[in-house]
Amino acid sequence: MNEFDKPLFIREIIKTSHDMHIKGWTEANGGNISLRLREEFVKEVSAFEPQSDWTSLNGSVPGLANDYFLVSGTGRFLRNISLFPEKNVGIIQLDDKGENYRILWGYEGGSRPTSELFAHLMTHEVRKKESKGVEHAVIHTHTPNLIALTYHKEYTTAEISYILWAHHVECAVVFPEGVFLLPWMMAGSYEIGRATADAMKVHRMVIWQHHGIFASGRNLDESFGLIHTAEKSAEIFIKANILGGVNSKPDLERLQKIAENFGKKLNPDLVKELNSKT
Ligand code: 13P
Ligand code: ZN
Predict the structure, then answer these.
(1) Where in the chain is the domain with CATH 3.40.225.10?
(2) Cα 215 to ligand 2 centroid, rounded to whole Å
(3) Each residue of 71-101: pLDDT tens digit?
(4) The model scores a pTM over 0.70
């Protein structure tokens, strides 16, 4: 790939990883990004000479058989993608069963895909199905305000969704389905990947207690935007509490009206649970 003629998906990951870094979400090698490549790019990259043998995923994602992904490298700093994309990200191809992958480009200097690869791929598999192929981009990152909320209290999914909807009302429009809160599990494990992907059947964002957030969107801008909006709400909530506490906030009825004004509807299961507690 020519330095002066980078394909669009490389330019997009450079922009997104840079934006994530300046937001303070990507200390050291924290966070990872994956992008399911669109048809027009697959044509180009499928002609690349494979750079590795097939490697087992230690699990299967048949819904992604023969798909191609751009994935950040394990141990790599997202803030360095702009400097050396060929070292810090790579392109992988999945086999026709969705059980093995091989490297087609990148990871120069001996890296490989992120340790959260299986969580990314299982999330892609679920969201590809739920969105009828529309969603392509998954981001995992370490957002300080959302993480702080999980240290503050053992919130439920309904409670944390309401906090986020209520402290920046854009949230009711941007993610009316709410945000799933996953109790602590070991990062990089099959179990955290499976639990994240299962939650993604309904949600596009999953908070990992004491760790960070996972989000899926149509493209990197949408995944970034989901996280950005949720993180901003968490920041406003924390700031209001520093000011002495939250003394004024919209109730569910008002939030529902705001969502409806944009043709959206708050997740009925979460609304029911919240109403049953008041
Ligand atoms: P990687 O360096 O393997 O991508 O891991 C970073 C991370 O955030 C793990 O949760
Ligand atoms: Zn992480």
Answers:
(1) 1-115, 117-278
(2) 12
(3) 999 999 999 999 999 999 999 999 999 999 9
(4) yes
Fold for the domain defined by 1-115 = L-fuculose-1-phosphate Aldolase (3.40.225)
176 conformational bin, left if phi > 0, alpha if psi -120 to 50, beta if neither: alpha
Which residues have CB under 6 Å of ligand 1?
Answer: 29-32, 74-75, 114-116, 187
The CATH number assigned to the domain with range 117-278 reads 3.40.225.10
Do the beta carbons of residue 30 and residue 114 sit within 8 Å? no
Residues with CB under 5 A from ligand 2 (ion): 212
Contacts of 147 (CB under 8 A, 6+ apart): 210, 211, 212
Catalytically active residues, by annotation: 116
Atom nearest to 73 CA in ligand 1: 4
